[in-house]
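Minutes, project check-in

Agenda point 3 was the complex the collaborators sent over. CS summarized: three entities, 1727 residues total, and the question is how they sit relative to each other. Sequences were read into the notes so everyone works from the same version.
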Amino acid sequence: MSDQNLEIIVGEGTCGKAAGSLAVLEAFKNLAPTAKIRSVGCVGMCHQEVIAEIIDGAKKSFMYGKLAPKNIQQILDFHRGSGALPTALLLSSTDSPQLEGGLYLKRQTRIALRNVGMLDPTSIDEYIARGGYEAISKIIKSKMAAEKVIEEVKISGMRGRGGAGFPTHMKWTFARGAEGKKKYLICNGDEGDPGAFMDRSLLEGDPHSVLEGMLIAAYAIGASDGYAYIRAEYPLAVKNFGIAIEAAKARGFLGSKILGSNFSFNLKIKQGAGAFVCGEETALIASIEGQRGMPRIRPPFPAIKGLFESPTIINNVETLANLPWILAKGGSEYAKYGTEESRGTKVFALAGAIKKGGLVEVPMGMKIREVLEEIGGGSHDGSKLKAVQLGGPSGGCVPEALFDTPIGYATINATGAIMGSGGMIVMNEKTCMVDLARYFLEFTQLESCGKCTFCRIGTLRMKELLTKICDGEGTMEDLGKLEDLAEKIKTSSLCGLGQTAPNPVLTTLKYFKEEYIEHIKDRKCRAGVCKKLITHEIMSDKCTACSICKKACPVGAISGTPKQLGSFVIDKKVCINCGMCLEVCRTDAIRVF
Amino acid sequence: MEKSLEANVDPSLILQWIKKIGTEPSATVPLLQEIQSTYGYLPQKAMDLVVENSQITGSQLYGVATFYSQFRLKPVGRHLIKICHGTACHVRGADKLNTAITNDLKIPKGQDTTNNGAYTLNDVACVGCCSLAPVMVIDNEVYGELTGASASKTLSRHAKNSNETIK
Amino acid sequence: MSDNKIDINFNGKIIKAEKDQTILEVARQQGVDIPTLCYDDRMKPFASCFICVVEVKGARTLVPACSTKVAPNMEVQTNSEKVMSTRKMCLDLMLSNHSGDCLAPCKVHCPAATDVQGYVAHIANGDFVSAIKLIKSRLALPLVCGTICPNPCENECRRGLVDEPIAIRALKRFASEYDIQAGPFLPECKKESGKKVAIVGGGPAGLSAAFYLRQHGHAVDLYEALPQLGGMVRYGIPKFRLPWNKLDSEIKSIIDLGVKVHTNKRLGTDFSIADLQKKGADAVLIAIGAQVSKPMGIENEQVDGILGGVEFLRKVVLGEKIKHGRKVAVVGGGDVAMDCARVAKRLAPNMDVHLLYRRTQQEMPALKHEQEECHEEGVHFQFLTAPKAVVVGSDGRARALKVAQMRLGAPDASGRRRPEEVPGSEKDLDFDLIISAIGQDPEVACLEKDPIKLETTKWKTVVYDNKNMTTKVPGIFTAGDCSFGPNTVVQACAEGKIAADAISLYLNGADIKFREEYRISKGRIKELEREDFAPRFEQKKRQKEIIYKADKRLANGGYAPINESLTQIQSMAEASRCIECGCSARFNCSLRDYSTEYGACETIMPGKKNQPEIDKRHPLIRFEGEKCINCGSCVRVCNEVRQISALSFVDRGFKTHIAPNFERPLQATDCDACGMCIDVCPTGTIVMNHSKYEGVWEGPKAITTCTACGRGCALQVSSVDEKKIIKASSVANDKVNGGVICKEGRFSYALLKYKLNKENSNKSISHAKKLITKMKKPAIFVSPWLALEDLAAAGKLAQKLKGTLFYLTDPKRKGKEKHLFAKLPGVTNVAFLEKIGAKPANTKTNFNKADGAIILGAYLSKKLPRSIPVVAISNFAIGTKAHSYLHHLDQLERNGSFLNVDGVVRPLASDIKSSQPTIAELLAKLSGIDATSGISKEVSKLKVKKAIVAPDAREMAFAKYLHKMGL
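CS then shared the predicted structure for the full assembly.
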């Protein structure tokens, strides 16, 4: 059988690359030089990377995961008819959709992610072939009124996917009505939330969707200039989006007099230089203006007075990626998904203590449990799930008991967490909730722009109190102080960063107070995380005296003679409880208590 | 090391960038990014040239250079190691990577670069590879699903491939 | 109905407000105080401090009042419980990252809270009169305290961390002795209030109360049981330690304020409190001290030959006969015991005096130098010796003292090891006189028979409130040893002053309450590290008073003074050692005021602090980053108002701080030392860098007109006695300059000290004259920063020589703002320059046709054609080579004058001669132009809006200026 009939598609997102996709691609090219080989963005099954899909002459699809160059020959042999199906690598196929990979995708409804992993992000033709630029062409050619565009988005029920969930059409209406010689549209791709990566995946894997979304938004509000503000930490996203801009310009979708109309839109990329607070609109604007990303008081809102004092709309990447679909299929089609108050779908980034981490897009209203257990496959090590952090450092922890909460803006807010940009960090029994709260406060503290008192000093004091508790030196009075600080920082900070910084503490205090009290009263960390409250010990009955732990110990706390059973011990005075020994031990001979 | 690097700053290059990127305040971040991508950090001489030849003030430039985590005011080693401390990485034990790598590199206290100038170690907020947590990045190459031990191995492999000595 | 008026609900009241107003502006109109640390009228609201939060109904969060605009029907609450507790926490948080000493520890640890740092600075400046005035504002007996105070101030002195503490006591003594010699300073007394106060007890507390009561304007009757005033300082302190001539002068300076003195009048014997009231006393102060020695509590204590310590000292002073024999025992280890021993030593030549103390020398409470002096004078110390009983001789007198040997056991409540008796160690020691000096009690028996019943404690003190000196009986106050219990002189003086202030409040019918002001401290000296202070200061030895050798002290009866005060030179040198650790902004620190008001404290939210080094690199401006609260006012006034780039926000998160650009010295930035950052700083982070000269006193303030140039900016000046300006600052609402002053206005007074005296010789003037005469069409370059009259003269010169006047431009700025420092609203010097035909000079300007160049205070970056002659008048490098260079002093170096509140022009630092001509005067000399006439016409055109600040003083100054212009 000739390779010419084979279409080989390799996932080339950042996670794919991290897993070694370049070597896999190289192997395919070397071993099947005549096959049609393409690289695409991330399909979302990050836990299975490297992933490749092979479509054979009969248009049957086979998806393989966890690939390494050494597997390629075996796969090619099968497709050339000279070998057996490598079932261990197969994720799904046309013939066996019930396999894990198939189910992973089947449970999802991919609208924003519709093209991600399906097309070559550097090829505008592939985007067009999948219906790209139809929506904006239709709008321009039919001279659709901007109000009609806004109306369509209103019907769709779309709310900003960046975090706050403000209805997109309302924001647009303000900007549309605002006075200003020039108006700006900014795509917010400064995904600073640790634990969220949907924007990266979209910008890397389907930049044209975002670009077309920007065109629609710009058309609706009457913006002539735009910026795509993308984190510098996402070099591939910057690169692919840059290619998309050039290609769109060349095809007349971008620039002056788009598609021969009077609508012009100039778009530039601004690389964010690393500041979480720039997710805040006024800080992002300051950053583009070349200032420190320090938020200012609102009102005036950016829709009235934003970038360079002009009306400005800032839309999130995911919001924008949905727009071409909504305008192409109609707002009411989008509104069919989801619930009354939260329409459509939402992309979530599954990470943390979960088996199948990656990107999933599900209709609103799906229960958290379904996402975590049925799609995500539960805890990565089989232990019990304890909670999930929604909304990153601004969000909160939802305990397992509330996993049946249906996903929606209001329902999630009711738990004390927020939808946020869609990061879901999953925690199991090995996560200490106090340590987690401390982690988030440390993050917000470092990311605070330093302007207002409560955020600059208050978050540090909270972190210090949490550290005290983690170190077993906390008191019940500290707990009260912590709560008082949290409440006041929430109500008296200038911007969203400060106002939401206490959320992780407040929610963990709400659902896991007993863990705090254990740290204080019993000086105990049940998850075995807080280093000052735990002890590492070698169980001589399980120890095989292999000496690997001794080599791994960074402080020389382990002594023992190789092969002499029972000789290995940890000197508690020297041990820093870093856990390196536990990690390397092959016989589970190290106990933490 | 710092002095000789300062001497490397080519004024004509800086002026060229200013011409290309702009003299307006909004050019601040892109100009600094350009300087850093060439020198690996922001040499004082380069920043002075920007202030002298644009409308960007010293106050603005210094304020911005110290605000964003991307910018460095000190020279960086030949290779930059970033250990991700995103939430997923934290939950999956990113601090073990720190323990292992710090132990390997023996970086002097209060500094972030090895004495031989080979490696600079930085903690970063999140590189967006959460499903591969915990993650380490060496010179833009992402390594995922690491343990302390495998991070160590990754580093020694890297050192071998790039003819560097650790420590 | 006006469009701009809206209704809002403000603290439950419906009021009208303007549409564009912020909540803060509305509150100010309503007379409601909302605190703020980052808002200043001169700048756009920034909303960083968040202490101005208020509650707005319906808002998710509290909102900052400074930057939230009112909206129709808005409901605002400015003082709810939530708002107040949030503001308090805001302050708690700020204070938790705020370091420094609001008050120097010497003041904090002085019971009388004398402003040590202040008077020490006056002494360093050679202004001894101001020093004594400052001391006497808190302490009525500085000479007494200067001589014998145990100086708790010195124990906490931060200079001690560098090398040795400042000799504070000795400096106070120097100043007060200077005062007595110069004819003592008598403070002004308010006009008679018609109220009468009776003081019982003429000791330090009573005298001190009398001193301040007279200043409050109340009539004072002072009753003293003994023949002379002074109490314990006369009858308890031997006069070789405190000479009477000096004590008498000090008491006289109090009595001379108009105190009626009644000596030999004893309470309980000669009169009662009720009698005093009957005689018309509106208030009575009981300050009878502690005059009875504590008994030893041993057998036969009552017999002859046993005397209490204070009784012994008093008898000696009164000249009563004492049977002392040759061998005297003094029991006790305190200061009174030392004095008793030393006086006993002087009863006759070769007295054999033994001091018995039940612990070791280490535990002995007497001052170390007292112990040493006592020992040097030949007193035998017997430690670990406790009296057990008095052995009575056949004559019924004490013959010997039965004592026991002691050893030290476990520590007791005071932390000292408790002495225990060694069993079987008793022995008899023969003595002719035994003096028991183990402490004193007040003599409250005199109060028992009084119809006015004052409650007393088991320690025989009067029950009182130590915050305001009130007793349980209204109108009766108490102070000193009889209330606090036996203590130091300075403690008695302090209580006397508080009593005087409290009585005055009582007599005026006010609440007798004193508010304690918030203060932050870096900590007690033992909690600090040497490194916290030492590296910044050069080591210098402490100056010492001369103490005579023991034989000289005991010569001729031994009652001549035993030591000598510091000399003037020594005192000034010693005072200059002060490192001025107290905050120089303590009299105008908003953070401190609000912390007092809201009861905030640095210990509530403790944690890590940012403690950057103090930046003293700039000669005029000091940056104490450890005090910064990041309000950003300095950065904003610099960038936004002055459009200068000197200061940056640096880093982010908790590490965020403010520093000069690139952490360089301020002078290496665009800073032009206008010092506006000092004016807007709410905490004393940015202050003037001339420390002792500027001092830290609260002086009279006056608004005057700046004389540095002709524009007429308002200046607020603080001075010491209107004879020396210590601080000049902007006036926030000055219409002339928008509340922004320049380096000349702010610092010229200080820089006069460093005034240069470079003369331009006639030779160089004639050379310049020769060059100028040859010029046919010169290019004249001026800095737009020059004073108007200098610019006008340059214009005239250009006219005369048919040359071109160029002014230098700043490529960084655009349009109207190209030359900032519009001292008249909307009008800059450049406007004036253009009016007189000047052209901007920049790199593109062609001045090749010029046949000469005259450079006035300007720096040229562009090269001049090599061949043309150059004349420069400047005080710095001019960027090119001059054929003739005349030095001139710029405005800040020139002499000036200021107007005091009465509108009187006083010369500034009149001892400095100014022979330096201005540029205008020099130009007139060089070219023969009439530099000054007619300028006023041009200037008056620039005066677009009339100044409204302090009209008298300002108009007068302006009139004077115009007069000088020839009008």
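Noted in discussion: Chain C has six domains: 5-79, 105-185+520-556+564-575, 196-291+442-507, 293-437, 611-754, 762-892+907-964.
Follow-up: revisit at the next meeting once the mutant set is ready.
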